[in-house]
Amino acid sequence: MANFETVEVKTDLLIVGGGFSACGAAVEAAYWAKKNGLKVAIVDKAALDRSGAVAMGLSAINQYVGVKDGDNTLEDYVRYVRQDLMGISREDLVYNIARHVDSSVHLFEKWGLKIWKDEAGKYVHEGRWQLMINGESYKIIIAEAAKNALAEAGGEVYERIFITEPLVENNKVVGAVGFSTREDKFYVFKAKAVICTMGGAVHVFRPRSIGEGFGRSWYPPFNSGSSAYFTLKAGAEMTCQEVRFIPIRFKDGYGPVGAWFLLFKSRAISAGGGEYMTVRKDELQNWAPYGLAKPIPANLRNYLGMLDLDAGFGPLYMETSEAINKIADQYKEDPKAFKKKMKELESEAWEDFLDMTISQAILWASMNVKPEEKHSEIAACEPYFIGSHSGASGAWVSGPEDMDTPYKWGYANMTTVEGLFAAGDASGASSHKFSSGSHAEGRITGKAAIKYIVEKGADPAVDMAKVEELKAKILAPLDLFAAHCNETTEPEVNTNYIMPRQFMFRLQKIMDEYAGGVTAAFKTSKFNLERAMELFVFLKEDSDKLAARNLHELTRAWENVHRMWQGEAHVRTMLFREETRWPGYYFRADTPKMDEANWHCFANCKVDPATGEWEMMKRDVWNIPGV
Ligand SMILES: Cc1cc2nc3c(=O)[nH]c(=O)nc-3n(C[C@H](O)[C@H](O)[C@H](O)COP(=O)(O)OP(=O)(O)OC[C@H]3O[C@@H](n4cnc5c(N)ncnc54)[C@H](O)[C@@H]3O)c2cc1C
Predict the structure, then answer these.
(1) How confident is the model over 162-211, as pLDDT tens digits?
(2) How many other β-carbons are positioned within 10 Å of the β-carbon of residue 111?
(3) What is the pLDDT of residues 132-171, one digit of tens each?
(4) Catalytic residue at 389?
(5) 388 CB under 6 A from ligand 1?
(6) Is the Cβ atom of 226 under 6 angstroms away from ligand 1?
(7) Which of 91, 92, 126, 425 is an active site residue?
(8) Has 393 been annotated as catalytic?
(9) Helices 434-456 and 20-35 sit at what angle, rounded to 10 degrees?
């Protein structure tokens, strides 16, 4: 076996992941841990300052309810999420996040984030729930607060450690193992409770950007399904694994469209069909009641554009020049004011990209795009798993203790595995939490996990023999490569092993072609999904033959195993749900209609850790009375 030093870390609470929800969890848990003489440790595969989906920065905070100014009520937010998710949401979780999110935003401002204000000193809204920010350093600010809180409470930060497996004994989590991405070190974290916050997943599906553009995607490449893998492997029940997210973004650079739609009130059109949201509005009747209420769910907006593409009316465009000129026209009587407004709008348009998707600005610049003069192409991206945004996949977690919810078996945000908590992308059916809501959910979870430890936390009984087995399994790709790499002239081609890159291509091909990726125009069917399951059998067999030359490839190898599990949960759940509920995200061509009578429910799944058997089940949807 590769010669890695084993490093043991003992803590009370372990937070795996270092993104927005992890930082929220760290801030809150550190406070309560200090009061109770407990220790908190956080582990990130990258460096907290620039890790996760907000690594590059963001241009808006997408969830702010504005309760103190009476802008909206918590119930308004619950209704909004219910509507966008076509009726399938955990309203107790959404409500709980909504009532805490404003305070997270106020903390961000206190910590130094610049939130735009108008002349009256009020936050500038991009849309009803969104606040404009100068967000290039958003993640650094939030990470700094988390690190400060941990330092003050005697906590620890571990960076560049890839968490690979959970440690579970008798349906109770006792820690996690992983390896350093920089040194030959294997880490064993022993903990009384673990919070899983390792984000969502990208590159499970083949991306649009292949060849020279490979690696570009809307979702950041750093998150590779580790949350889904960790919770599934621990035996936790999962929910909404079929609810992937497909954003419509500026094509090829994946630049954001929120500011265009919400702030500039831009229209989207197809080249041959015009404004598809208006021309095709009758289609929305087929998806009542959600299709007929406002705001129209994101997947249905996608779907109307996709219908135009099917009809040969594509490409799709964002009418940037029309939107900019319409706003500036209000100043046309005064040429100086007009010129000034045009400059201001132009710079806002570019800043939106520079804040969070610099590559789109580079692409526009290289193609001589002037948004004030000509429209730009938009397209549906490949599917992603991001339960905190507009997808919903994640673990099935316990509801808030003070609410009369039917989904309650203990502490807030605890999964069905004792002592294992989940937040952000890792917790399901509570989307539209975004950066701020993920932070708030992290705070809720951090506090609940410390309460659990105070009331029930037992010393973690870790079986070191099992850990040794895991160590051998995790490092096996290095051994396999070393044993056989000299048997061929081209080390990447070898009958004894498969390299991580080739393995990823195989996974992506299955998902793309059979599970409704870009190539399949986001359509699938029972027969295609069953074929995917047949191919997964071989893929899973071959995952034991993954090889790695170095630490970098060892990370890639395990990222792909994690992606594979996310992919399998997705395929199985789409197969289980015999209807089409989210056209625009995926369309099951053999069950093309929504079936409220049989499928107005959650589709959940879990894996038995002892046998590896999958179980699928339905769970009822509960609405908050009177909302
Ligand atoms: C392109 C894009 C644009 C967005 N735009 C906005 C916006 O404008 N406004 C807004 O409010 N929200 C926006 N969001 C949503 C927001 O970024 C997410 O809701 C939020 O980051 C989710 O928090 P999280 O903690 O679940 O995941 P993340 O913040 O992504 O953190 C995941 C963490 O897990 C770590 N990790 C992953 N795998 C492992 C492993 N195996 N071992 C150890 N650590 C691991 C990562 O390094 C990272 O630190 C956007 C998201 C995306 C992807």
Answers:
(1) 999 999 999 999 999 999 999 999 999 999 999 999 999 999 999 999 88
(2) 14
(3) 999 999 999 999 999 999 999 999 999 999 999 999 999 9
(4) yes
(5) yes
(6) yes
(7) 126
(8) no
(9) 30
